[in-house]
Design brief:
The chain is an alpha/beta fold. Strands 1, 2, 3, 4, 5, 6, 7, 8, 9 and 10 form a 10-stranded mixed beta sheet that branches. Strand 9 and strand 10 form a beta hairpin. The two termini are about 15 Å apart. The chain has helices at about 35-50, 75-80, 100-110, 145-150, 155-165, 170-190, 215-220, 230-235, 265-270, 295-305, 320-330, 345-350, 355-370; strands at about 10-15, 20, 55-60, 90, 115-125, 250-260, 275-285, 315, 375-380, 385-394. Helix 3 crosses helix 13 (about 355-370) and helix 10 packs across helix 11 (about 320-330). The longest helix has 20 residues, at about 170-190. Belongs to the thiolase-like superfamily. Thiolase family. It holds the Pfam family Thiolase_C. This is Acetyl-CoA acetyltransferase. It comes from Mycolicibacterium litorale. GO terms for molecular function: acyltransferase activity, transferring groups other than amino-acyl groups.
């Protein structure tokens, strides 16, 4: 059973840049976002050997579509990568899940017959285009009707993470232990060369810049709460102020791309399918808690796929904040030992619009390295949404 009807959709290539610090001093700060994405696109077709003229579309995720990331960065990047002018491109925004949604759109297009070969990609340069900079002073992206529905207003993501930690009784120590583990796993994976196959070095950066080997619970315990505000303390007295820079994902720069086609086309072109996109869903959830959509998304994608938790060999849950993953595991009953086995966004980084494809790239390789069959990826998203995708190794 599969969540897609019609033709299959398989991943035949996956590549990403190393993730850089999303600050002016980061290794990728001088690289314009369009060039950052162009690098992954160029590397993808070079590694697969596919003629870019055969690509029916490039669908790229980007969250802050302003400034250097404005004016349909997917199209600009593919032209910068040297693709023929005949190749179109479009840019999508489902907040942090933007490029995971790009994968879903690409797979849907292939399964329906609208595409034969399509690239799903993503990019974010948080050092050059700061998060939130697309909201101009005096603007109101929510509208009056939204305000009438939510008269108390919503909160920043960091406060949502605090609310989750409080509701699921997650202690500061538990959050910091999970976060230190993310760095430990990512550092070990880097040292063992487990990321080598997926990485496309750029601007002198060959490995992920943010991973901190030797990160300890004791070190993280010394960090101050990152989102404390007296107004929220009064509104939400249950909050324990447990969220710090150490148990949150850092500002990051990076890009990633995957090539999706059918098994038949892959065979004709001499390409080896790495994994089949088995099932993909998107859900909405409580916009106040905002980051808990990964729970119903996981339940929905498993039901639609006709699979159980026991069938899944690996899980990738975006580490926007440590309580997101821990609350998810507690509610769905997933095994944390099979989750983010090579570390997650807390250590590797979270370049918003690129993260969905970055995680997919890492997950495809981890599934092959471990000889598993099924893997499940899910990401929380601003506004109270989540994507979930199951792949099957072929």
């Amino acid at each position: 059973m599969s969540g897609f009807r019609g033709r299959d959709a398989v991943i035949v290539g996956a590549v990403r840049t190393p993730i850089g610090k999303g600050k002016p001093g980061g290794a990728l700060h001088e690289v314009l976002p369009a060039d950052l994405l162009a690098h992954s696109l160029r590397e993808l077709v070079a590694r697969t050997g596919v003629d870019p003229a055969l690509v029916d579309d490039v669908i790229a995720g980007a969250v802050t579509q302003v400034g250097d990331q404005a004016v349909n960065i997917a199209r600009n990047a593919l032209l910068g990568a040297g693709f023929p002018e005949s190749v179109p491109g479009t840019t999508v925004d489902r907040q942090c899940g933007s490029s995971q949604q790009a994968i879903s759109f690409a797979a849907q297009g292939v399964a329906s017959g609208a595409y034969d070969i399509v690239i799903a990609a993503g990019v974010e340069s948080m050092s050059r285009v700061p998060m939130g900079s697309s909201v101009l002073p005096g603007s109101n992206p929510f509208g009056d009707d939204f305000a009438r529905r939510y008269p108390d207003g919503l909160v920043p993501q960091g406060i949502s993470a605090e609310l989750i930690a409080a509701k699921w009784n997650l202690s500061r120590t538990a959050l910091d232990e999970f976060s230190a583990g993310s760095h430990e796993k990512a550092a070990a994976a880097t040292k063992a060369g487990l990321f080598d196959q997926e990485l496309a070095p750029i601007a002198g950066l060959a490995t992920d810049e943010i991973i901190r080997p030797g990160t300890s619970v004791e070190t993280l315990a010394g960090l101050k709460p990152a989102f404390y505000h007296p107004a929220y303390e009064e509104r939400f007295p249950q909050i324990g102020w447990e969220i710090t820079a150490g148990n949150s994902s850092p500002l990051s720069d990076g890009s990633a791309a995957v090539l999706i086609t059918t098994s038949e086309v892959a065979k004709r072109l001499g390409l080896r399918p790495l994994a089949r996109i088995h099932t993909a869903v998107a859900v909405g959830s409580d916009p106040l808690y905002m980051l808990t959509g990964v729970i119903p998304a996981t339940e929905k994608v498993l039901t639609k796929a006709g699979l159980s938790l026991a069938d899944i060999d690996l899980f990738e849950v975006n580490e926007a904040f440590a309580p997101v993953v821990l609350a998810w595991a507690a509610d769905v009953g997933a095994d944390l030992a099979k989750t983010n086995v090579n570390g997650g966004a807390i250590a590797i980084g979270h370049p918003l619009g690129a993260s969905g494809v970055r995680i997919m790239t890492t997950m495809v390789n981890a599934l092959e390295q471990r000889g598993g069959r099924y893997a499940l990826q899910t990401m929380c998203e601003a506004g109270g949404m989540a994507n979930a995708t199951i792949i099957e190794r072929l």
